[in-house]
Amino acid sequence: MSVSVAKAPAASVPIKKSRFLIVGGASLVGSASAERFLHDGAAEVVVFDNLSQGSLTALQHLRSNPRLKIVAGDVMRLPQLLAATRDIDGVLHLAALMSLSMDRDPWTGLDVNIRGTQNVIEACCLAGVKKLVMASSSAAYGYGPGIVGKLSESTPFYSAGAPPGAILYGASKIIGEQLCRDAYRKRQLNYLVVRYATVYGERQHYRAANALYIIETHDRVRRGQRPRVLGDGSEVKHFVHVSDVARANAAAFAAEATDVAVNISGPRTTTTLEIVRLVTELAGKDLEPEHVEPDPAMVRLTSGGAWSLEHGLAEHLIGWRPEIDMREGIGRLIAWREQNDGANGA
User: Fold this and answer.
1) Fewer beta carbons within 10 angstroms: which end of the chain, N or C?
2) Domains observed in the chain
3) Strand pairing report for 307-309 and 260-264
4) How is 202-256 classified by DSSP, letter by letter?
């Protein structure tokens, strides 16, 4: 995807005094982004969600803010999106089914991730929204033994040997990105795609396959059970804390950059064994992990070897870089769960 210089200042939507719609906002990333936008002085933040996966509990800490508005709506209902985008400056599109949901129900996943994205784009164009920021994923590079080395925004999609649910999810994100690109060329809709690594943090849910390494380990050690490591634990993962993602979303709106995708990832990669040991340590437990063979029926998002999701282009184009390393981020997640008696978010 080429990097284009914005044709007009409208490509930049500063957070302060602007009005934002977060589609799929009753979620982990949505709640953190709403909090960030409100903190940075947004005039209004409208959360649009049908609550099929999200939950209002994710927004509980923000409900008293008069600049937050919650609207019940579905991305498959264009009239609802048209009503919600009226007088909105920037739209953050988060609504999607992820790999685990795609594995269970691929038809609904494709509908939401592709037709839903097209509905969001259509609403943005008709309402005159100044900029759309679309949440994509490192899944846009695929999975399997071809995923090695430094993954940049030009790395091609790899699918050999990976589970269908994961590939369908990644392919749906690629299509969503291209729908944005098409709208920019034909209808001058400014947009920026943010390709997240695995997002984790406070209000963590169980829908992200890779984040399960963190949350399921914590569940086990809280019960006094030995944590489990799939295989030898050498599989490489790349995470990014949700507060860094929220900052990236805000930076994507404020930047002049348009018609481009940028990677959003944490400071460095880790392995599944490192994750399990770190969670156990930070939970204050002295439990040696047990190595188990993966369940063949499980959706596992595997990679071929050492790799990393490079975020240099995001630093160059939107002035963003991660601040939270895994030790701090997991510590914050564990503290939040302990304070909320093991609760989970949406």
Assistant:
1) N
2) 9-201+240-266+306-324 (3.40.50.720)
3) unpaired
4) TT--S--TTTHHHHHHHHHHHTTPPPEEETTS--EE-EEEHHHHHHHHHHHHHSS
The set of residues, in sequence order, having a beta carbon less than 8 Å from that of 3 and lying 6+ positions away, is: 257, 259, 260, 317
- Quote the radius of gyration of the chain (alpha carbons, Å): 19
Quick count: other Cβ atoms within 10 Å of Cβ 81? Answer: 26
9 vs 51: CA distance, rounded Å: 35
Distance CA 47, CA 94 (A): 11
Residues 72-84: tens digit of each pLDDT:
999 999 999 999 9
The pair of structure tokens assigned to 36 is: 């960030």
Distance between CA atoms of residues 260 and 135, nearest Å = 12
**All residues at 6 or more sequence positions from 124 whose CB lies less than 8 Å from its CB, including other chains:** 85, 91, 132, 183, 189
Task: Please tell me the distance from the alpha carbon of residue 93 to that of residue 112, in angstroms, as a whole number.
Answer: 12
